[in-house]
Each structure stands twice: as structure tokens, then as C-alpha cells.
Amino acid sequence: MEYLDNDIKYVAGVGEARAKVLERELGIRTLGDMLRHYPFRYIDRTRIYRIAEITDAAGLSYVQFRARVTGVGYAGAGRKRRFTACVQDPTGSAELVWFQGIKWIEKRIEVGREYLVFGRPSFYRGELSMAHPELETVEQALSHKAESGMQGIYPSTEKLSNVLGAKGMYQIVCNLWTLVRERIADPLPEALRTRYGLIPLREAYYNIHFPQSQELLRQAQYRLKFDELLGVQLNIQSRRTARLAKSDGFLFPKVGKAFNTFYNEKLPFPLTGAQKRVIREIRQDTVTGFQMNRLLQGDVGSGKTLVALMSMLLAVDNGFQACMMAPTEILARQHFTTIRRMLAGTEVTTAILTGASKARERREALEGIASGRVNILIGTHALIEDRVRFADLGFVVIDEQHRFGVEQRARLWTKNAQPPHILVMTATPIPRTLAMTLYGDLDVSVIDELPPGRRPVKTFRYTDAARLKLFGFMRQQIALGRQVYVVYPLIKESEAMDYKDLTDGYEAISRDFPLPQYVTAICHGKMKHADKEESMRQFKEGEAQILVATSVIEVGVDVPNATVMVIESAERFGLSQLHQLRGRVGRGGEQSYCILMSGEKLSRESRARLDAMCETNDGFRLAELDLKLRGAGDINGTLQSGMAFDLKIASPTADVQILTLSREAAVSVLEADPALATPENRGLQELRRRYSGREEMDFSRIS
Ligand code: ADP
Ligand code: MG
């Protein structure tokens, strides 16, 4: 065991109780975990503010000021009971508040004495107040050495900050440092460090926690980012090498009856040039003897499903089974219906398996797949359950990839002695380097051409005040025989309210669009499966003109006669989600419209998102803009939670340059020593293990 693997509870100031909270709230269990818990910002502890300088407009998140206590007292009752202290400096006054630990603070605080107060300012009617500030007498404060003055502020959670404040956390890191400072081994060989201009690891850790200067802080960040991305790249490159070395990919040399019958007799329209090219690329991959691992990017509506189907037919022609996995029940059912319809009259057999499959459907799928009678299985995550046994799985399609992880893909491999070819499809364009970091080792194909005859969707922004105008427009479109989606956001944290908005909206629409002239269907996650199906059917078959839904229809639903997409509270959706939703219309030859409804008051960022939607239909441009808007510093952002690798400091979008260098480093190291077996590479082996990928991922938060 490495020294840094020791339990965090042994650090002075931690102990059993806090260790438990640290693990539960932040996943910090060992000394190493704590050492890699980096500040997300730094404050200048040498700067002492005047009360008058601390205003709402100044936007300060932590401050310290020097003030005299002029009075203390109690306020509120029961659970609201709190202890308050009034403080004053020559420029103004402020209120300090404690809701917990009242006895303790009451005993220590002295009226008439001067303190250095440190904490998060908040404002009530323009007056400064501070909850649970940290206090030091001025004498105590003066006894510290000033150093560079930069003190780290560590990521925390509400529960954790109840037992461990900003200063407490800092103190623990100080104590930790005295324990571990002599125990830090640098995993990077000297030569590598020199080549990439990296400071030693020990110095990097020291300066990330206790920056001695801005410059050293920058170098520390650079070094630690490099290590993380190198760890990831060592994994990706090793996997790639292993995959290419095995050359145990299934061979699909034949183009046979299944493919040809479909191509010559069933294909409802000519393929676009881009579709043809991608099918050729896939075909080339499957005759090399290597296992294919390919990412297919194509904007919404570019016709990825057809490419998937024709690739699966190639597998069938060569005696293999294929499966296609979709992120939601509705999508899986839709793919199943589309594909079964397209394959009608051919000998290719299909089945479906989802979490909601009834006993009979499930039995048929499981038996058909195990016996080899079924050629193509379509479904949801249920496909990777242990019970699913394929007779001969040769090809796997994963639709809307960002909902599946490396780990889940790996589970598919174990369904065979030999790994199947894998095609992952996404409508969210991702730069190649980023795709590799997110999803591992992939080749990339792009469909950069929409089927002919599509008219670009026109996009408008309405405020809620323009609802009458909106209803008028809907009426007009419906009179032309078209259909309308009305989509509401559904965010976990505000689920109850979101459902209320949705049902209120549904009622309002039903009133304004009354039966029998109009039929409005509704579809959301709380409905019974059969009711949802019925709503979708009504809308698909044109019985209902309006579908009110949550973003379950976000991905992949296909109703070409729908020409209007109304998005309610559009400011609450992310750009890629908005673009996905818009892609639900504009699928037929008619002019289509996307209407973004929002309140009057919008944040700058929301406004930029909605404006961008009105300006362009180009998914690639929107994706780039999205990355910019969401910003590099958003470590806890949605992107991060979808990532296969647990990065603490590096951001594959913001640190592209380091990403490129680390990949170059990984390739050259592995070329010379594929197993990382030499003594100088032992540290790299450890680094590779640390970043070998997450076992469980939360995909629900990805937008
Ligand atoms: P996505 O890439 O978003 O998954 P789909 O595969 O759902 O797109 O295709 C969108 C629509 O375009 C479908 O209705 C499909 O039948 C149609 N389509 C696909 N390829 C072509 C083509 N080559 N020509 C005309 N229409 C096509
Ligand atoms: Mg699709």
C-alpha cells in the first residue's frame, strides 16, 4: 500500500466523524484523495476590506474585514432561533449571524473587542450580513505569516460546510501537508518532465494548495492538468494498441442478400453522398480483421438511422447478429417500428427488448437472440443485462452516444468471446480529441449533408406575453393540415413544479383548441406506459394535431408532418438540447418553425443561447458556441459528469493544448515500453491505473 492510500481520518483535525462526511459528500477517503482535492479559487488574505467597500455590486464571494463588536443578542424562536452580533468599522456596520453552535460562539465573542471577520457576504436591503463567519482577534491574525496571501477555497457541499468551514478545510490541508510532504513520489520520468517543461509533482501540490506566487500557481496547475490528461491518454492509447494488436475483429467480406434486397427493393429514397461515404467507411473497417470502434456524427435529421440499419444488414449477410441500443424506451420502440417496416418482405428478423417489455415480448427476444433466430435486436439499456445472451453478436449500434459510457460498452464486449464491431452515433458534434477523452478510443465519421429537399427551420423568440399570437399561429398551421409539438422542460430538482407547468399548459391549450375540432395529446414520464404509447400513436398517425410533452421527445422522434416546435421556458434548456428539439421538425418538405418561449428577464447567457438558435441551424456551430458559453471553468458542468474519466482540474475543452501534448507523450512512451514495465515507468503505470475510467456514470445529467 502506498502511504497516500492511508485513511484521511488520521489527519489532525479530521477524525472519524468528519472523515465520514468527507467521504459521503466529496468521495474523499484517503490522504491522496485530499491532496487531489484542489481549491477552485483563491482569495487574497492580505487584503482587508472596509465595510463600505463590501457592496452587492462589488460581487465579492469571500472577504475579510476588521471590525469591533458593538452588541450581541438573540433573534427568532424554535428552529429559526439565531445568535447575532453587530460589528462596526469607521465606514459602516454589519450583522453577523449564527444558526448553529450558538453556545460556543456566545462564550467566545466579546463585546467591545476588535476582530478580523472572514466569510461570504450577503445583503439584506443593502445591509451587509454574514452567516457563520470565521472570527479571529486582531492579535491572533497578526501572529500569522502573510506568505503570498493567496488562500485556497475548496469545493464543498452544504452538508459538509456545516461541520467544516472554509477555514477548517484549509487547516486540514495544512495538517495533511506536514504529513505527506516527504512522501510524494513523482510518477513522471525526469526526461519527460524536462521535455514538457513540468515542475516536480511535490512542488505542484505545494503550490496548488499554498501558492507562493501567481507564476508558481500557474505552473502547478499546468503540471497537475498534464498528469490527469496523461493518465487518461495512457489508458486510451493502451486500449487502442491492445485492440489493434489483437486483430480479432469479425470479418464481413460479403455483401449479400439482406443488404442487396434492401438496397435495391426497399430503400425509399436515394442515399445522400455522405451516407454512402460513411457506409463505405464502415464496410472498410469490417474487412480489415480489426475490431471497429467508430463514432458517427451527423446533425439531427441527417439520416443516421439508415446508415445504422444498412451496416447491421452487412453483419447479417455475414452470418452475424446485430443490435441497436437507444437511450429511451420511446426511441427504441420508434426505431423498432421504422426498421421493421423497412425490412417488411425481406427475410431479416427483428425483435425488441426494453425495460418495459412484457413477459411475452421479453421471452421472444431472449429466446430468439439466444437461438440465433433473431437477426437484429433493438432496445434500451436492457440489452446489456446479464441475462441477454446472443448466439453470435457481430455488430452493435449505440444511438445518441452521450448516454452510454465506456464501461457500458465494455459490458457489451463480454457478451462475446470476440468483441463485436461498435458504431456509436451522436447528433452532438464533438472535436475528435475531446471525443476520445469522453468516450475512449474512437475513429470518427461525419455525415455533413442533409437529405435533399429540406427547408431550413425558421426560428423565433416570443416572450410569454405573446401567447395569443402563438396560439393564432398554431391555429393557422393546423388549418394547413400540419401538427405542433409543445415541449416543457423537466428538470429533476424542480420536477413537481415542472409537471404542474406542463399540466397547466395542457389545460390551457385544450381550452383554446377544443374538441371535436382539435385533439391535443399529452406525453410525459409519469404516465402509464400504455397511455404514453397511445398519445404517441395518436400524434404519429395524425389524429392529434398537438402534442404536449416533456423533453422525452428530445431525441430521435420522427413525425414528418409536424412543422411547429414550441419550446416553453426555452431559457432553461441547454443549446444542444434546443437544437435537438428543433430537429424534430423540418423533416418533411414543408416550411417548419421553431418558437422559443421565454420570460422577459433573461440572463446574459440565456439570451445568447436563444439568439444563437435564431441565427443558425448549423449544429456544429452551435456546439462550438455552447462550449464557449458554458465556459472552461465549469468543472462541475454537465460535460464533466458525462466523462468516462474523473478529472479534477483539467478540462478537455479548455485545455486542448495540454491534451494534445499529453497524447503525444503517451504515444511515445507506450511505443518504447508498451507495458510500462521498466522501473522508470512504474509511476506512469500507477497514473494509468488511477485514470482507468469510472465504473458507474450518471448520464441523466447530460444535456
Ligand atoms: P437522425 O440522423 O437524426 O437520426 P433519421 O435517421 O431519423 O435522422 O432521419 C431523419 C429523416 O430523414 C427520416 O424520416 C428518414 O427517413 C429521412 N431520410 C434519411 N435518409 C434520407 C435520404 N437519403 N433521403 C431522404 N430522406 C432521408
Ligand atoms: Mg436519430
TrEMBL record:
Keyword DNA damage carried by entry: yes
InterPro entries xref list: ATP-dep_DNA_helicase_RecG, DEAD/DEAH_box_helicase_dom, Helicase_ATP-bd, Helicase_C-like, NA-bd_OB-fold, P-loop_NTPase, RecG/Mfd, RecG_dom3_C
Domain of life: Bacteria
Catalytic function, reaction form: Couples ATP hydrolysis with the unwinding of duplex DNA by translocating in the 3'-5' direction; ATP + H2O = ADP + phosphate + H(+)
Xref: SMART domains: DEXDc (SM00487), HELICc (SM00490)
Domain Helicase C-terminal: 473-633
Family: Belongs to the helicase family. RecG subfamily.
Entry function: Plays a critical role in recombination and DNA repair. Helps process Holliday junction intermediates to mature products by catalyzing branch migration. Has replication fork regression activity, unwinds stalled or blocked replication forks to make a HJ that can be resolved. Has a DNA unwinding activity characteristic of a DNA helicase with 3'-5' polarity.
Native source organism of the sequence: Alistipes dispar
UniProt-recorded name of the protein: ATP-dependent DNA helicase RecG
UniProt keyword Transit peptide present: no
GO biological process: DNA recombination; DNA repair
Keywords of this entry: ATP-binding, DNA damage, DNA recombination, DNA repair, DNA-binding, Helicase, Hydrolase, Isomerase, Nucleotide-binding
Single Gene Ontology MF annotation: DNA binding
Domain Helicase ATP-binding: 285-447
Enzyme Commission number: 5.6.2.4
